[in-house]
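Q: What does the assembled structure look like for these inputs?
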Amino acid sequence: MSETLYSIGEFSRMSGLPVKTLRFYHDKQLLIPCYVEFDTGYRHYNLRNLEQSQVIKALRGLDFGLEQISRILEGQPDDGDILDFLETQKAALQSEIERRADIVQALDLIIARESDARKLMQTNDDRIVQKQLPPQLVGGIRHRGSYQDCATLFGKLGRALGRHIAGKAMMLCYDEEFREDDADFEPCMPIKRVVKKPQVHVREIPGGSCIALVHRGPYETLSRSYGRLMSYAKEHELVLQRPSREIYLKGPGMIFRGNPEKYLTEIQILVAEDPNGRPPI
Amino acid sequence: MSETLYSIGEFSRMSGLPVKTLRFYHDKQLLIPCYVEFDTGYRHYNLRNLEQSQVIKALRGLDFGLEQISRILEGQPDDGDILDFLETQKAALQSEIERRADIVQALDLIIARESDARKLMQTNDDRIVQKQLPPQLVGGIRHRGSYQDCATLFGKLGRALGRHIAGKAMMLCYDEEFREDDADFEPCMPIKRVVKKPQVHVREIPGGSCIALVHRGPYETLSRSYGRLMSYAKEHELVLQRPSREIYLKGPGMIFRGNPEKYLTEIQILVAEDPNGRPPI
DNA sequence: GGTAAGGGCTCCAGCAACTGGAGGGTCAAG
DNA sequence: CTTGACCCTCCAGTTGCTGGAGCCCTTACC
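A:
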């Protein structure tokens, strides 16, 4: 009984696998045509090959590698451990899914921040305002030295507080006047709950009446905005309290340093209650 | 003001990228060392390179391709369309997640069936039993011809009924005696609800008292089991009804043909109610 | 002066699973 | 005899590296 043989082209149409792929599978010993003409090298396939091809297609569809498929096909007679293969594959896929899901989550965060910043950008003006600040729970690391160091410190804070962080990064500035090299400052992160971390000072900073403005531009020009706040205070006979606060509404992002001309920083300085009991305007 | 330069080894330790990778990135114009010695080819990196490397690392961590990273880095000054990149990437990742989730689901199904069959295998005997069958909603395609055709028919049924399928494949056999070539049979699938599909006959098949046994082995040997049922019926003076039913407990799987010696097929034949009103034993 | 260690360099190969193309042989019909 | 449809092999390219061979250079040590 002679069975019908099919050329690689016919077999390709029957199996749904491209000719190139069939040749490749032959090369890899995965799907060996039942007969190869010696002189021309022409491949000929039969129906058993068709069955094999369908198995291979199915397993490829389940994302098995060719190597694995080979092993599965070899160990087929005993048939017992196919379940292991399936379970292993499932686990592998699930861990890949998880990895990607994590990335998507991270992306979501970044996207949220970015479009947030975009919106801020549109609606910001640089007028001085007076407003009430609520008390705020923060964790901070006070430091004396150059402002250059704050990147490291924010890094440390971020790692220490992680998922407890509940707002934009900020800084408390304890200096009376601006110092470049020997400044006294405290990078802070708002947090939701009290957490104990080594090196991190966690406590509530007070609320109250403050004067504030949103500074636009690189940090080097912050002193101009401080100047404006000072003269405003003098003009309105307000007594200011240290430390002043800088809220980094938009600064260097998690990925890009961004354009410093577009950085937004809110400066807040608490106003001392008037000793006469007159409420601050 | 001369800035410090770092050799590729030092820079590798600072950036956390392997030396090989740094050379590769240089080759790809992704991270170009600020200075390359002309005669030795030695690469030298500066702190700006370090920043770039961190951006690249971050983007790689978000699964961006090098090509994309290049484009992002190039279009950085305007800075506007970064959000598009992020959204695109997120969408891409999500579709990958979905694909894998689909595969996992399919794997689950296969695993369930397989371990199901495994369990059946252990606990099966081939004794004849009498039992009550509930009525069952099925969709079937009646056919006259060779049993060879049933693979195609089951395929058609599967595609037509898809997710409505609610149990093992089965077949109704209308022939009085076994025929090889001109058989009259109907591949069926149990379903949950009435659905209308062209070419598929959907209806409820009756329940009632039946005799049944589980046949183990290839379909070619089914007639032996039919024989046993017949002589049992004669012995117990039971009148049998057509069509008989074959339930394919374990047959060729979705991927593998499996070992026919291990196929399990339950044969059920309804028993006509005794005309005397005596309940069947 | 030899040599070993520790950097650096280039170029080549390989992973996975194909895909595309060049260049050439085979077969049947018109 | 040509045309067109097939078929073949071999090579290159995809992505993001990784490993190795083979070579150069400097420094330290014996």
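Chain A has two domains: 6-79, 124-270.
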